[in-house]
Amino acid sequence: MKKISGIIVDPVARRQFPGSLVIDQGCIVDIMAEPEAKGPFILPGLIDSHIHIESSMLTPAAFAVKAVSHGTVAVVADPHEIANVLGIPGIDFMIDSGGQVPLKFFFGAPSCVPATAFESSGAKLTAHDVAELLRRDDIAFLAEMMNFPGVIGQDPEVVAKLQAAAKMGKKVDGHAPGLHGPDLKAYLQAGISTDHESLSLEECYEKLALGMKIQLRQGSSARNLDDLHPLITSHPGQCMLCTDDLKPADLARGHINLLIQKALSLGHDLFDILQCACVNPVRHYQLGVGLLQKGDPADFIMVDDLDDMEVSATWINGEMVSAKGHALFQASQARALNHFKAAPITAEDLVVRSRGAQMKVIEVTDGQIVTGAGRYPVPANSTIVEADPQGDVLKILVQNRYKPAPPAIAFVHGFGLKQGAMASSIAHDSHNIIAVGCNDKDLTRAVTLLHECGGGISFVDGEEERRVALPIAGLMGFGSCQEMAQQYSELEHRVKENGCQLQTPFMTMAFLALPVIPSLKITDLGLFDVERFELTDLFVFNGHMPQCWEM
Question: Does pLDDT of 367 surpass 90?
């Protein structure tokens, strides 16, 4: 039996008081008010309500080593990144890795593998597969339903997945950027209860009025807390905090504790914030995570100052798992597993022959995964269309990595890269090879570097060649958070030195292959119009050319 004393911050009763927790066999068996008690503030452990662990480039076990030092005790995780590469064996890998460490992982059954029929993935999960997963005790929910057209149109496979979740009494996560009106109502009526893709307060208000839970996202690439934070005060009972995707360097700096710190700096009440960061995820997903109540698992954190939210210790199931910023456990070495059969490419494979007066261009906005659709004039009498680094219109390609196939090629505006090329086998959600570059020679070599190691990230500028190998599904490495962060940051730094203006170049690039986020994307099958939900031609022959694209 243990007795832990301090200033207890109770998120359910919304009060703080000096007292002690009495812990036995991993649970809080008594809570005593003790006016003389001093020491740190004791708060419930923090929960990320929606995350893809794979984006950290770490195994779940290695992720846990760093996350607990920031006060995270549980994550609601969608393993659809590795599922798109390896199917159910990939999901089992994530669950097995997470089971080696104290952090509480609640994995979902990926609902969209692949995300659409307009891309090639390494695996496919049918409605039968999803139903079998949902019957398992180690699968907690049905992960984000990205196929909103399938939900609204009552696609039989989609309906079967939703019905399987309802039968098992498990929650269904949503993914509904820009959805409103009758379509939104139909989406919610299908049993979908959350959304992490809202971009404006107006969009959130409509979803909230219909009973949807809003997950306020502040990740590495998509950062919406600045715009949506008023909901913490106006709708504290319907919001949760999440990161969605975190690169390793960002995880090294902090996790949900940073979102709490930011919300406090914006003037929100601590108990409203804890409602979003702790109480709501536990209640919504029915997680086995404690909230500092008698009879709960003893999951809590200690902080010396509520303003800076620097976590001095983290406890899970009554055991201290981190102290003074360091985990008190280690991650065991993971095994390598992969699916990589891409065909070699040459510079000749990347030649784009002109077929029109204008071409469609993916427009990138820093800090968003939503893209625009621009128009770029093809130089008169040009037979070959090249990248234009000075005009910030670069070539982008996606190549199927699961079987031999030529790459799909388009153009992108907003990277600012002046020299060289970058490539990655992290390309949401099917994780084919994606690359952006200023010339075909560097693009070819950047892609080839990934072929040689079975996936990773790379940068090439003439004779300079750099890469970080990711031997686990082309998504994750064997290193610790610090090791992966250093390798990733060095590569990212070189990209920025060559002119890239984006805060997270590789992560932004990865989302350009996601054909369920508006409005113009690229998959291994070609340029994709998300608004029309169909593949589209690179060239246009009529239509207005915006002033900003004049040469």
Answer: no
182-211 per-position pLDDT tens digit: 999 999 999 999 999 998 999 999 999 999
Q: Mark whether 408 and 522 lie in a shared domain.
A: yes
From start to end of 38-113, where are the E strands?
41-44, 46-51, 72-77, 104-109
- What value does the mean pLDDT of the chain take? 95
CATH classification at residue 54: 3.20.20.140
Token pair, residue 301, equals: 């954190």
Whether residue 404 is found in the same domain as residue 544: yes
- Bridge partners of 17, per DSSP, are 8
Residues 266 and 368 in one domain: no
Buried b (16+ CB within 10 A) or exposed e, 10-22: bbeeeebebbbbb
Q: Give 309-327 as a 3 state SS string.
A: CCEEEEEECCEEEEECCEE
Domain that holds residue 396: 347-549
Q: Do 224 and 363 fall into the same domain?
A: no
Q: Which amino acid is at 413?
A: H
Select from 176, 154, 167 the least CA-distant residue to 109: 167
Q: Is residue 533 part of a domain?
A: yes
> Is the pLDDT assigned to residue 151 strictly greater than 60?
yes
Does the pTM surpass 0.70? The reply is yes
Report strand pairing: 15-24 vs 2-10: antiparallel
Q: Which amino acid is at 144?
A: E
* Residue 491 included in any domain: yes
Q: 286 burial class (0-12, 13-18, 19+ CB within 10 angstroms)?
A: middle
Residue that finishes a domain, picked among 236, 267, 287: 287
**Same domain as 61, residue 206:** yes
pLDDT at 501 exceeding the cut of 70? yes
Neighbours of 145 (CB within 10 A): 25
Q: Which has the higher per-residue pLDDT, 425 or 178?
A: 425
> pLDDT grade, residue 311 (50/70/90)?
very high
Domain membership of residue 336 (yes or no) is no
What per-residue confidence (pLDDT) applies to 542?
A: 62
Give domain status of residue 173, yes or no: yes
**The two three-digit tokens of residue 434, written as one number:** 């994606």
The helix/strand/coil state of 342 is coil
Residue 550 has pLDDT above 60, yes or no: no
Instruction: For 382-403, write each residue's pLDDT tens digit.
Output: 899 999 999 999 999 999 999 9
Distance CA 8, CA 17 (A): 5
Domain count, the chain: 2
Handedness of CA 202, 207, 210, 213 (dihedral sign): negative
Q: Examine the fold and report which residue of 266, 287, 308 is the final residue of a domain before the chain moves on.
A: 287
Residues 219 and 355 in one domain: no
Partners of residue 422 on adjacent β-strands = 436, 459
Closest alpha carbon to 52 in 21, 25, 84, 28: 84
